[in-house]
Design brief:
This protein is an alpha/beta fold. The protein is built from 6 helices and 11 strands. The structure holds zinc ion. Residues 189, 193, 199 line the site of zinc ion (ZN).
Length: 230
């Protein structure tokens, strides 16, 4: 693998025999160029130079995601609130509960690993998601008249929700880390797919009927969605 050092950022070069053209990808603080195996490196350098402004703008929009630290005083987003962690190790049993804006954790281990704490927190969020998202989806289905066949909360890597042709709505549990207006937008988006299984102007018009600020909500999700991670 080659790396080009450009003005203020590094570019990873990935060569492939099957590839016929060059392609650029920017995300999570990294820049990658995929290029045909036999093409000389200076073509990639030239390509990157031409796209420099675009790359810098993209990197500024998508800063690298830092690993969370599970320790006292760290905060986690939940339904528009910021919860502060309060961890008490060596308490005989593992427990996690919210009181006000504090997320209390007790652990059996005297020095719990980050992975163990992450698992406790993730399980708690999934539980919150199962309660909140399903209740909210049912309420919005009622008020909009767009009633899904079923609602399910799932783990997705790269999407917030989905709606099948048979009318099943599925929502990503990580949504509970977003503000409530954003969650409503995603639910409305999926419910509107019950009538329009596409992203046509008619679809967006329907979304706009139930969420007049959907453009801002969609933009928020695009800009901040990757931070909704544990
Ligand atoms: Zn959609």
């Amino acid at each position: 693998m080659n790396v080009i050092q450009s003005d203020g950022f590094k570019v990873e070069i990935i060569r492939s025999k099957r590839r016929k053209t060059m392609a650029l990808a920017v995300g999570n603080g990294t820049v990658k160029v995929r290029m045909p195996a036999r093409l000389a490196l200076h073509h990639a350098e030239r390509f990157v130079e031409q796209k420099q402004h675009w790359i810098k703008a993209k990197l500024a929009q998508n800063p690298p995601i830092e690993d969370r630290l599970y320790r006292d005083g760290e905060t986690l987003p939940s339904l528009g609130d910021l919860l502060t962690l309060d961890i008490s190790p060596g308490q005989g049993k593992n427990r996690i509960y919210r009181d006000g804006d504090t997320l209390f954790i007790t652990t059996r281990q005297k020095t719990p690993s980050q992975a163990a704490l992450q698992k406790l927190v993730t399980d708690w969020y999934k539980q919150q998601a199962a309660d909140y998202l399903i209740r909210r989806c049912n309420a919005l289905a009622e008020s909009s008249g767009l009633r899904p066949a079923s609602v399910e909360v799932k783990t997705y890597k790269a999407r917030w929700g989905s709606c099948t042709i048979s009318g099943k709505v599925q929502l990503n549990w990580k949504l509970v880390m977003a503000p409530t207006a954003i969650i409503d937008y995603v639910i409305i988006h999926e419910l509107c797919h019950l009538e329009q299984h596409n992203h046509s102007p008619a679809f967006w018009q329907l979304v706009g009927q139930f969420d007049p600020n959907f453009t801002q909500h969609r933009a928020w999700l695009k800009a901040n969605g990757q931070q909704l991670q544990l």
